[in-house]
Amino acid sequence: MATDQDATCKRLKRIEGQVRGIVRMIEEDRYCIDVLQQLQAVQAALARVEDAVLKDHTATCVESAIASGDAGEQRRKFNELVDLFARTKR
Amino acid sequence: MATDQDATCKRLKRIEGQVRGIVRMIEEDRYCIDVLQQLQAVQAALARVEDAVLKDHTATCVESAIASGDAGEQRRKFNELVDLFARTKR
Amino acid sequence: MATDQDATCKRLKRIEGQVRGIVRMIEEDRYCIDVLQQLQAVQAALARVEDAVLKDHTATCVESAIASGDAGEQRRKFNELVDLFARTKR
Amino acid sequence: MATDQDATCKRLKRIEGQVRGIVRMIEEDRYCIDVLQQLQAVQAALARVEDAVLKDHTATCVESAIASGDAGEQRRKFNELVDLFARTKR
Description:
4 copies of one chain form a homotetramer.
Chain A: H1 2-27, H2 32-68, H3 71-89
Helix pairs in contact in A: 1-2, 2-3
């Protein structure tokens, strides 16, 4: 688990660097389309981080809700996922 | 539940009609941008159907997995949701 | 061009059939996750139709706006694309 | 124009801070769903930056392609937009 979190933090730090790079592109008056492509690259990278965090969530929090046998806790976990899902689509 | 399914079927039949309308627009050589806007309207309508089906799913299949106390079944339900979620994003 | 339009109409008729198939799935009480996957398949097919219509639009309407040398007409065409783009993202 | 670019840079610096905040959340072992919600907030903020850059692009680069009366240049600008559009959708 800790290794996964390390990998996720590393990815996010790379994304932070990419965002800083876009600020520089705008300050240097780089071509808008190149800026827009970089923005798309950052969004794709963030989507991969989302996937990783969701996978962690399933392997840990969701698993422990299943193991607990606590129906209320399980229902909460399902609802959180469905809400997240509804927000992501738009 | 049956009422929800009726409502969903009615919505899908309306969407079917919208798709048929787009075929007609193309045959009548209507302006591309109008066609594209109609395509967007159909996709928005499909997204609302997805929300409704997902809500049904939570209220029925997910609830019965929780009630069953069957950990394997609950795990399957979570994984299905997470897979669906991953596919929707792209 | 006419061939492209024929191909697009054929795809849309296939999509119409897919939507009708989903109505049947719901009436037959098929598993929600299977229904959701079919809804995703229809949305992917619609996205491909959008791509095709957009490509037609560029090859015809946009080209004729460029050929016309009419700045107002060109501006209109750009704005329509940008508006469409803004709506698609959400 | 310069004002618009300043505003966009300011937004991107705020986004950079948000990404750094998510790294901290993960290091502090915060709840996955809260992390996922923050990731969604960052993506929504990036989408707003995209809109702003695209608007700038239309007001400047696209306008000067229209003013130039250069058909090749106009075609290039249209194609760039359509390509960007195609990539955004998926």
